[in-house]
Write a structure and sequence with these properties.
Layout (H helix, E strand, L loop, with lengths): L2 E5 L10 H15 L7 E3 L13 H13 L5 H23 L3 E6 L2 H14 L5 E3 L7 H13 L1 H21 L2 E4 L12 H4 L4 E3 L13 H7 L6 E6 L8 H14 L3 E6 L14 E5 L3 H7 L2 E4 L8 H8 L4 E4 L2 H9 L5 E3 L2 H12 L3 H18 L2 H24 L3
Parallel strand pairs: 1-2, 1-3, 3-4, 4-5, 5-6, 7-8, 7-10, 8-9, 10-11, 11-12
Helix pairs in contact: 1-15, 2-3, 2-4, 2-6, 3-4, 4-6, 5-6, 8-10, 9-13, 11-14
Length: 405
């Protein structure tokens, strides 16, 4: 069997978002089932250059500029090409030692870097892409730069990143998505993917655990009301932070038994609600926030396949999520172990209904959520799906080789 190469030369560890946490959970699962040999994994040991220590947004942009040579002026273009070549040179000695039949990249620029390496070596190996963004990568970078550097820089970044994503999606030979519904944010790139193989593989995660009791966690976060709702994630429109604020404003105005616990980095574009029972926590341990809450709310406008949703199920949380993207997939895969709402106007009523449930009913939902995680989303279950994907990629490669005259 020709093993796939899983390529993401960045930090990989449990508890972080994006590809880094995804791959850490996958490797933990493969280790648990004794199948780490099913693929070659290249992580942050591959690249030790200074740019890997920059912020993710700046790093992606720098590498995109280098790879596509988009910087203005002949001198800068030469510097960009030289930088891109150094990236290829750094990984060449590592990749030369590996025998792989396909590559799965988890970052747009990595597709181009691997393509450059294969061209350099005269090899023909199918390159796959798994994006992890809940929106088009160019739109995600736009939002990051808008908060950090303003409108002009954000617009420039999006224009450059749009060229990048179109180039990469056109270059990729196949795609991996966690579910069909997770493809919803990528409709604008559908023509570039048409006619190419798409593999679906749901992910998984380690169980989130905390030594805190519910009472201790609530005391830690200053909860003095009988009920609490948790929001965990970035403070932006795609994650529905503003929708969460709108629903909270409505609920807080008519009842005094609820506190909203809001975890995640604040954004200058979205000031806090300014209510004593709207508590901004910053980045804190997810398990502790979920332990303190009676309901976890995931109000995304668009959804890929949110890690925090799987983590919430692993904790046995009562979950309310928007009927978007991967949320719908998880709902179907678990036979309704979470509650979905459809449309902004439905959020506050749906949240109120869960808060009004008898505690015995919420406890039954917690048990159902945890059972769903144990049945579908443990690292071992994730790893078994990956083993099947690796076999499918190997079979496709062999069939392609046999078809060459």
């Amino acid at each position: 069997m020709a093993k796939p190469l899983v390529y993401y030369p960045c930090e990989q560890k449990p508890g972080i978002g994006g590809p880094g946490g995804y791959l850490a959970n996958l490797r933990a699962g493969l280790e648990a089932i004794g199948r780490l040999d099913v693929a070659h994994f290249v992580g942050d040991e591959a690249v030790k250059a200074p740019e890997t220590r920059r912020t993710k947004a700046r790093w992606i942009l720098d590498r995109a500029l280098a790879t596509l040579a988009l910087l203005p002026g002949p001198r800068r273009r030469l510097m960009a090409r030289a930088k891109a070549r150094r990236q290829v040179d750094r990984m060449a000695s590592l990749l030369d030692a590996l025998d792989f039949g396909s590559v799965i990249c988890h970052d747009l620029v990595d597709v181009l870097a691997i393509d450059a390496y294969l061209r350099l070596r005269g090899r023909k190996v199918p390159i796959g892409l798994m994006s992890h963004c809940p929106e088009l990568p160019s739109d995600e970078l736009y939002a990051i730069q808008l908060a950090k550097r303003g409108l002009r820089a954000a617009q420039q970044t999006r224009a450059q990143a749009r060229m990048l994503e179109q180039t990469v999606f056109a270059r990729a030979d196949f795609y991996v998505f966690p579910s069909k519904e997770a493809m919803e944010p990528y409709g604008a790139l559908g023509a570039l993917m048409k006619g190419k193989p798409v593999h679906f593989m749901a992910s998984g995660c380690e169980r989130l655990e905390t030594g805190l009791s519910k009472e201790t966690a609530r005391a830690k976060f200053g909860v003095k009301t009988p009920l609490a709702v948790a929001y965990i994630g970035r403070h932006n429109t795609i994650k529905g932070y503003d929708l969460m604020q709108g629903a909270a404003r409505e609920i807080l105005a008519r009842r005094d038994d609820v506190t909203f616990l809001v975890a995640g980095k604040p954004s200058p574009l979205f000031p806090p609600l300014g209510h004593p029972r709207w508590v901004e926590l910053g980045w804190v341990k997810t398990a502790e926030v979920l332990r303190a809450a009676d309901v976890f709310c995931l109000p995304n406008r668009q959804t890929y396949y949110d890690l925090v949703l799987l983590e919430a199920l692993s904790c046995g949380s009562v979950v309310l999520a928007s009927a978007t993207g991967g949320n719908k997939s998880v709902f179907t895969e678990t036979d309704g172990a979470l509650s979905l709402y459809d449309g902004e106007a439905s959020l506050a009523p749906a949240l109120g209904a869960l808060l009004d449930l008898p505690e015995a009913d919420r406890e039954a939902r917690r048990k159902r959520a945890q059972a769903a995680w144990e049945a579908h989303y443990t690292p071992s279950a994730f790893a078994k799906r990956f083993v099947r994907l690796a076999a499918a990629l190997d079979q496709a490669t062999q069939e392609s080789e046999r078809s060459i005259p």
